[in-house]
Known about the structure:
This protein is an alpha/beta fold. Helices cover 45% and strands 17% of the residues. It has a single domain (9-248), classed as NAD(P)-binding Rossmann-like Domain (Rossmann fold, 3-Layer(aba) Sandwich), CATH 3.40.50. The strands form two sheets. An eight-stranded mixed beta sheet has the order 3-2-1-4-5-6-9-10, sandwiched between helices. Strands 7-8 form a two-stranded parallel ribbon. 46% of the residues are buried. The mean pLDDT is 92.
Amino acid sequence: MTSSIAHKKVVVVGGSRGLGLGMVEALVAGGAAVSVVGRRAAALSEVAKRFAIDPIEGDATDPSLAQRVLSRVRPDVLILNAGEKPAMGGIREVSWETFNGVWNSDVKLGFHWLQAALRLPLTAGSRVLLGSSGAAIQGALYSGSYSGAKRMLWLMAHYANAEAQALELGIHFQAILPLDLVAGTDVGQAGAEYYARQKGISLETFWAGYATPLTARQVGEHVTTILSEPAYASGVAYGLKGGAGITSLDTK
């Protein structure tokens, strides 16, 4: 395992905004050569204006895109952050298609990119980080299949590690779980707005309930630390929390 991200090739799937953009900012600051995969050309263009990145437009759920990107870039690190914002609402209020949207997005793209990483395969010593969530531990009311999808991604990191070890590929898969809503992201904002309405309080009062809110850039810094420090090289799941830093979740 590497002890630094400087000069390492990193692909961030879903890195053009929100949580992924926070990761891109931290990785570029750390000296990594970053490729950013995103669905929207305009958003990718804005990121490319700010940072010296390799923009790649495409649908992250397309298996052919995963194969093409990994074959061309051959990254040392692959970060799977892309996903769908959950449609907030109770079971009585939503359709099956709405309820299951996150599963059909986040888990689907995770499956295709993990499969491509194993089949190619990536170079021995490579790291693959899957974006999970603290909702995978205790659930998140009114967020459809979000919690289940994020738990599945966590499990998929374990499954992929088992296959990589059996095949002696030397690839290590890890799950990253922000343990709080992340301010300044689509998912964080959607959750905060819905839960504030449920409680009958203002959005400002809701966010004030977090002593140290977690930001996208802080998540990026934590991810950079996980990729840079040997202490985090062998674990599978890490929780991220504002003020508390990085916590191993491998006993959960």
